[in-house]
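Continuing from yesterday's entry. The apo prediction looked reasonable, so today I'm repeating it with S-adenosylmethionine included to see how the binding region is handled. Same sequence as before; SMILES copied from the compound registry.
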Amino acid sequence: MPGYALLLAPSANRVYADQAGRLARAELAAFSSVLSTEPADIGSARIGGVEYLTFRSELTERDVAYLSNLSAAYALFERVGELLRPVELTPLARYDSDLITIPKYAGKTNEQFTKLLLNLTVLASAAANRMLDRKLTVADPLCGRGTTLNQALMYGYDAIGVEIDGKDVEAYKAFLQTWLKRKRLKHTAELVPVRRQGRRAARRLEVTVAASVDDHRAGAVQKLTVVQADTTQLDGLLRARCADVLVADLPYGVAHGSHDDQGGLSRRPLELLERAVPQWVSLLRPGGALGLSWNLKVARRELAEDILLANGLAIVPDAGLAHRVDQGIERDVVVARKPG
Ligand SMILES: C[S@@+](CC[C@H](N)C(=O)[O-])C[C@H]1O[C@@H](n2cnc3c(N)ncnc32)[C@H](O)[C@@H]1O
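Holo prediction written out below.
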């Protein structure tokens, strides 16, 4: 079987320090389910003084199209004897990459990590085989200023967000509108009040965008909705079974204040999960998957898994993605699937 060497984006080292290779190998293993041949001998090698992720496989054009979306992929080479033959990457990239890289603000979830989490979740869902060809719907019920939603747009998908903080929703609208205007893309964007039982209950940002004039003419638009509301009280605000996958980066919490008896950990992210997961599960289509990241320093993995299990989800085996973000944050990932 031919050997391949994947060069990781230099930014991966900034995001994950010395753990970038380990996370990329786990992500490649997750892609195995959609490749025509399972990659063998996944490892790493130093070639010409540079570290590569290495594996063996019989890659078809479609396999390369899948792997082009690896969150840390920079360049792929086939190993031919001592030499490296470039393999052209063909990522799902409907828009210029600055849609993802421009936004910078306190509390932003790193965009490369967000892509990793989205990929793992799509690959665990019944939609995995449609990842490249269909317009999936991605929901982020804690969407902040839209890192997940922007990645969903980039993939050509529809996106749904929920965010409690009105300032975040307004800032996201302002960014998106400015960006869409600057790129001269046909779009609509409005922020409107939502009423429940005659009273103003929430606000809703509704955006439509077409990647080209031809798409616009053909009515091939992507839809993005952000509801400004409490994610634990979504009744009547979003349709049941509207999303193929749901991805969220939980508030990181701080290890002070309300301590419990679980080794002195704050329960706050878990309390949010306990109240929100029943709502989130109902947003998922059958066979849909949910991917969450959170700070292990404030909530243990087993407790997060228990909440998902109690809501009827099947946990995808832990791929060992826990990694250090900074002194106060050790981030982990859990992915679970709704029965089909
Ligand atoms: C870790 S941040 C996510 C950041 C986001 N991924 C981004 O890159 O912008 C968690 C978000 O959850 C929001 N949040 C916390 N509790 C919430 C609730 N009950 N309902 C809706 N949003 C909530 C916070 O305001 C914050 O924006």
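Comparison notes:
- The first helix runs from residue 10 to 16.
- The longest strand covers residues 284-295.
Will overlay with the apo model tomorrow.
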